[in-house]
Write a structure and sequence with these properties.
The complex is a heterotetramer, with 2 copies of chain A and 2 copies of chain B. By secondary structure, chain A is an alpha+beta fold. Chain A has helices at residues 15-33, 66-83, 114-131, 157-166, and strands spanning 6-9, 40-47, 51-52, 55-64, 88-94, 96-99, 103-111, 134-140, 143-147. In chain A, the strands form 2 sheets. In chain A, strands 3, 4, 6, 8 and 9 form a 5-stranded antiparallel beta sheet that branches. In chain A, helix 3 (114-131) packs across helix 4 (157-166). In chain B, a hairpin with a 3-residue loop joins strand 3 and strand 4 (63-64). Classes of the chains: A alpha+beta, B alpha+beta.
């Protein structure tokens, strides 16, 4: 049985499982609707880097407001599908302690054509960073600090436009 | 009829660290808004007040405006700037 | 032992193996040079779609001029690293008969930061389509045809510029 | 001194189908270029001539210009428009 396409989990992320889940959903949809099957699957994996802002990172601690994060993943999917109805998405985000090198987020976007798959994948990671209620505390050589990025506002159209711009769409 | 309402307040990340609780239950007056819940929190924990300028909030796990009305039994969450990914 | 990061193969493509090979190479390089470890891995998988130009596709037959294709993968990598020295790449392309749904090409780009990983991955698929000496014959419901795309010219700077433009870089 | 040279000609995709061979060995005159090798091929198989306008070529598995000089023992490849990915 395929894994869920949208999840917040304490378990290690398995990109392969997410790719399979997205492609299976896409093929199911293609069979049901007569639409084209996927010709491209773009993926993005975020990993814990060994340095940040000049600090030597030891590990990160992620937390999420899980029900809202899942609702946000659905919202981002709707934003993508409004522009590209043929794109199928999956988003997995890990929480808990993550050591250097471990994947914190995995995103997969499939589409009949590569431009939409690549653009959607890039858009999603930008939007996750803008509006997903997820936080990381960085434990580095010499201290620790909460990382604070964007003030989450899903209705901020300038932010969404910036994400589309970065997605080159 | 002016009975007070009870809401659950959820706090995350640095806000949770400042307050020292992940979850509080508080009585609020009828017709209170999310902003009223926040103000009461800032009175109780003055250190969180600085977050008022960079805050997001959610009611019942749905993003909401600070002006949104709160109902009895609601879960009100206050979110510092996010850093997922 | 990790798989080669650049290969032309008749065997099914395994994205996971390529991701691991790229990340392992990146971590090795980071350890050796003191440069940051990867914070992002962008992947692209091309799949055989069930339709093309209105034809119902049954399967594709890929062939390659293998030594030149591998040299082209190296050339594309040099093009990427000239702009982004910190990006580590891997490119696997399959040849032989591929049925609908099977991956024909897998590309992975890792980088300390997501913009470069995503941009490099998109640039590589564009360049592979422009200059890799690989051909596909499409067998469709009602006939078969060679697919002919770009006249390969690695020195064509307008083509490279178009690939950078599509990569939003 | 004007001994002829021997080159291996590699053909791919539709070009290979037209000629019916993946590999040919041909004698060419000294000082021949890739274009000369192609011209000889187009004389032998007139059906390939139409490909002259959309052709890439390689010498010893390295992209080359049609004006490149060919040496004895070289492998000369003619490539129709590519369609990988």
């Amino acid at each position: 049985m395929a894994v869920s396409r949208f999840t917040i989990t304490r378990e290690p992320l398995i990109l392969r499982a997410l790719v399979e889940a997205v492609l299976e959903a896409h093929h199911d949809d293609a069979r049901a609707t007569g639409r084209p099957s996927p010709g491209a699957a773009a993926s993005f994996v975020g990993l814990v880097r060994n340095e940040n802002a000049g600090r030597r990172v030891l590990y990160l601690e992620y937390e999420a407001y899980e029900p809202l994060a899942l609702a946000v993943f659905e919202r981002i999917t709707n934003e993508v599908n409004k522009r590209w109805p043929e794109v199928v998405l999956g988003i997995h985000h890990r929480i808990g302690r993550l050591d250097v090198g471990q994947p914190s987020v995995a995103i997969v976007a499939s589409s009949p054509h590569r431009a939409e798959a690549s653009g959607a994948c890039r858009y999603v990671i930008e939007r996750v960073k803008q509006i997903a209620p997820i936080w990381k505390r960085e434990v580095f050589d010499g201290g620790e600090t909460w990382i604070e990025g964007a003030v989450a506002d899903p209705e901020d159209e300038a932010a969404a436009a910036e994400a589309w711009r970065r997605a080159c769409a | 009829m002016a009975a007070s309402m009870r809401v659950t307040v959820r706090l995350f990340a640095r806000l949770r660290d400042v307050v020292g609780e992940t979850e509080l239950v508080r009585e609020i007056p009828p017709d209170a808004t999310v902003a009223d819940v926040w103000q009461a929190l800032a009175v109780e924990w003055p250190a969180v007040a600085a977050y008022g300028a960079s805050l997001s909030c959610a009611v019942n796990a749905d993003y909401a405006r600070m002006t949104a009305r709160v109902e009895d039994g609601d879960e009100v969450a206050f979110l510092p700037p996010v850093s997922g990914g």
